[in-house]
Design goal:
Elements (H helix, E strand, L loop, with lengths): L12 H14 L8 E2 L2 H8 L3 H13 L3 E4 L3 E4 L4 H25 L4 H19 L4
Antiparallel strand pairs: 1-3, 2-3
Length: 132
């Protein structure tokens, strides 16, 4: 797993770390039981404060994604299907909000936005069909 920090991102550094680790867990790049770098090691690797990595890991632990075991390290927890569903719903809502905002700027009507969504839904369903 590779964490990329962006100074141009509006999100604080700890939030960028947290979201990238969460995304790696949700996408199965990181699986149950996988070990994360220690708080100190991650801080060294990213050349940031230990306080920043501690905040990211603490938030992930509180959200049920990882366990921090003193002296043993940080481990990915089993995915709770309800937590995963809520995270995905939040991501969908955020993306819909961004799309609607962009549509407003482009002066698209509700019907045009809905048509675009319908088109995308058809395309995604088409791609997911088993090929003969």
């Amino acid at each position: 797993m590779r964490i990329i920090l962006r100074n141009t991102d509006k999100a604080p550094i700890y939030e960028q770390i947290k979201e990238q680790i969460k995304e790696a867990i949700l996408s199965d790049e990181l699986k149950e039981g996988d070990t994360l770098p220690s708080i100190r090691q991650l801080a060294r690797d990213l050349q940031i404060s230990v306080i920043t990595t501690t905040r990211a890991y603490t938030d992930l632990e509180q959200e049920g994604f990882i366990a921090i075991q003193q002296g043993r390290g940080c481990f990915v927890l089993p995915k709770n299907s309800e937590i995963v569903r809520e995270q995905l719903l939040r991501k969908i809502e955020d993306n819909f909000t961004a799309a609607v905002s962009a549509g407003k700027i482009a002066k698209l009507s509700r019907e045009e936005l809905t048509a675009m969504l319908e088109f995308i839904l058809v395309e995604v369903q088409f791609e997911q069909r088993p090929r003969d």
